[in-house]
Design goal:
InterPro entries: UbiD (IPR002830), UbiD-like_C (IPR049381), UbiD-like_N (IPR049383), UbiD_Rift_dom (IPR048304). With about 600 residues, the chain is α+β, with helices and mostly antiparallel strands. About 25% of the residues lie in helices and about 25% in strands. Strands 5, 6, 7, 8, 9, 10, 11, 14 and 17 form a nine-stranded antiparallel beta sheet that branches. A five-stranded mixed beta sheet has the order 19-20-21-23-22, sandwiched between helices. The chain has a five-stranded mixed beta sheet with strand order 24-25-26-30-27. The radius of gyration is 25 Å and the shape is globular.
Length: about 600
């Protein structure tokens, strides 16, 4: 079992899963470009030994594949998974107590260990000494992309009630005074927000510690959706097979295992502009006011290594992160939400915009005609649970006569489109919360949600090519087949919502006049139907990141009845809107500059 990040790096190198990059590399765009090229090729972890402007090496792509991640945690994976299972199903431990003795021992060893003072291997440095990595051309500065942000509840101080989360940290740029101020961006529904609200009410600053590095389990713990009562630090210890070691300095918690620690305070009402930043939806999250953190001290451990990743349109390294988390905690949602079999945040759609779910339909088994009932209860529970509540589109189905999986996107969507009653089974939530990073809504954190629910017998056969009626429409052209039951239509550039309403009304009328189109329940209006139809990934990404259900969903022969909306065919306007954030586009000049590292004799020549 590793004592630290350095031992993990050495182990990966010995097993052929890490390459050292000996050439000097610029942290401004070059390191990120190299990482993305190697990740895309399903390549190894990377150790940048010579980072321009910093004496510290940096490592990336540690979690680039699920296989590598499970290799890192190979000695503790099964026990950790079992302990999480016990938290979800404690009765199993009572039924077979001796079977779980090992799990109890592992859990006890995972309790955090408080030390009396800071290790002698720690020294004070400054923010400017760190690898200041600038990932995308229009990023506002250098960011920490794998931080473990630690804060304590002022009403229940102490490590067992603390929160450890992964919130992005801006180290330079904008109006931040280098070495004295940094930006802390956290989205809604985050634990640190509760802590800050409490300290603000008390008129006190919130003390924050930012850990970077340490055992890889500590990084993973910062993003884990853990069962209630299981602290991130305990989970980190379990997965590391080594207790989380810490002490307090000047009132700040210091992880003895971290490679770097930044401490500071967030004072009530103090904010500064943070961003832009390339995010996991595949766009820039724009500049907004977020909490300002006044830097207290910065520490670096002897032989420390700076871990980083690149955030952008999926798939990226955090895709493997997500798969790993799902495997560890996949059954937890079944315990939290009765009736659920599966919930999947669709990675290709940027995770939060789109959820697939499978649930039970047991309310009225005596009725011959089946319609969603329990599914709607489950849908409301899903949209009211933790990070799942950030979703915009939820497609939920009842598994009936054959096994169904959310992981086969085409099969799952086809199953719903074959069965959904478009007059009855579409349910909106308007003027509600939305992901902070999603700019398709009506403002920061605000937008809408929609549930597509389906059960019962198959109602329609889905088209397997573009129906002839869609090849001769007014206002739309270049109809392209996307998947069974889904066709993309190219339209003129979006102007205003008033114009869009008129355009969609005209399109609906044109389709209605052409006759029934029952085999094509979902139409996507877009700027580029060739791009939309080129791959399933393009369809999922562009459709669900560029639409707000309440504003961008229309229907053929749509109507309202007692506040409920229905239609014959759903139309989603997935054109780019003026208020949307710009997509991430790599700098091609930089892409050419990094070719030197892939040439014969260079560090990455084997990746050529």
């Amino acid at each position: 079992m590793y004592q630290n990040l350095e031992e993990c790096i050495q182990d990966l190198e010995k097993s052929g899963q890490l390459i050292r990059i000996k050439e000097e590399v610029d942290p401004h765009l070059e390191m990120a470009a190299i990482h993305m090229k190697v990740f895309e090729a399903k390549g190894p972890a990377l150790l940048f030994e010579n980072v321009k402007g910093s004496s510290y090496p940096a490592v990336s792509n540690l979690f680039g594949t699920v296989e590598r991640s499970k290799y890192i945690f190979r000695k503790t994976w099964d026990k950790t998974q079992e302990i999480i299972g016990l938290r979800n199903d404690p009765m199993s431990a009572l039924k077979s107590p001796f079977k779980h003795v090992g799990s109890g021992v592992a859990a006890t060893k995972a309790l955090p260990m408080k030390k009396s003072s800071l290790p002698s291997t720690f020294k004070e440095i400054q923010i400017s000494d760190l690898p200041l990595i600038h990932h995308w051309p229009d990023d506002g500065g250098a960011f920490v992309t794998l931080p473990q942000v630690y804060s304590e509840d002022p009403e229940k101080p102490g490590i067992m009630n603390a929160n450890l989360g992964m919130y992005r940290i801006q180290l330079s740029g904008n109006e931040y005074e280098l070495n004295k101020e940094i930006g802390l961006h956290y989205q809604i529904h985050r634990g640190i927000g509760v802590h800050q609200a409490k300290t603000t009410k008390l008129g006190k600053p919130l003390k924050v510690s930012i850990f970077i590095g340490g055992h890889p389990s500590h990084t993973l713990s910062a993003v884990m959706p853990l069962p209630e009562g299981l602290s991130e630090m305990t989970f980190a210890g379990m997965l590391a097979g080594r207790r989380f070691r810490y002490s307090y300095e000047d009132g700040y918690c210091i992880s003895h295992d971290a490679d770097f620690v930044i401490t500071g305070e967030i004072h009530p009402g103090e904010t500064k502009p943070e961003g832009p930043f390339g995010d996991h939806l595949g766009y820039y999250s724009l500049t907004h006011e977020f909490p300002l953190m006044r830097v207290h001290k910065v520490y670096a451990k002897e032989n420390s290594v700076w871990p980083f990743t690149v955030v952008g349109r999926p798939p990226q390294e955090d895709t493997a992160f997500g798969d790993l988390i799902h495997e560890l905690t996949g059954d937890a949602v079944k315990q939290e939400i009765p009736g659920v079999k599966e919930v999947l945040a669709v990675d290709a759609a940027g995770v939060h915009p789109l959820l697939f779910a499978i649930g039970s339909e047991r309310y009225t088994p005596y009725q011959k005609v089946k319609q969603p009932a329990e599914l709607l209860t489950i849908a409301n529970r899903i949209l009211g649970t933790g990070q799942l509540s950030l979703a915009k589109f939820l497609f939920i189905a009842a598994e009936e006569d054959k096994p169904l999986s959310t992981h086969d996107e085409v099969e799952f969507l086809s199953y719903i489109l074959e069965r959904i009653d478009l007059h009855r089974d579409i349910h909106f939530q308007t003027n509600t919360t939305m992901d902070t990073l999603d700019y398709s809504g009506t403002g920061l954190n605000t937008g809408s949600k929609v549930v597509f629910a389906a059960c019962g017998d198959k109602k329609r056969d889905l088209c397997t090519a573009v129906p002839e009626a869609l090849r001769r429409l007014n206002g739309c052209e270049d109809a392209r087949f996307v998947m069974p039951g889904v066709v993309a239509l190219k339209a003129s550039k979006f102007k205003t919502y008033e114009d869009a309403q008129k355009e969609m009304d005209a399109l609906s009328t044109s389709i209605s006049k052409s006759g029934e189109l029952t085999n094509c329940p979902l139409l996507i209006v877009c700027d580029d139907s060739e791009f939309m139809s080129a791959s399933l990934s393009n369809f999922l990404w562009a459709t669900f990141t560029r639409s707000n259900p309440s504003h961008d969903m229309y229907g053929v022969n749509s109507y309202y009845q007692h506040k409920h909306w229905g239609c014959d065919n759903v139309i989603i306007d997935a054109r780019i809107k003026p208020h949307h954030a710009p997509p991430l586009i790599a700098d091609q000049t930089v892409a050419k500059k990094i070719d030197r590292l892939f040439e014969n004799g260079a560090s990455l020549s084997k990746m050529k």
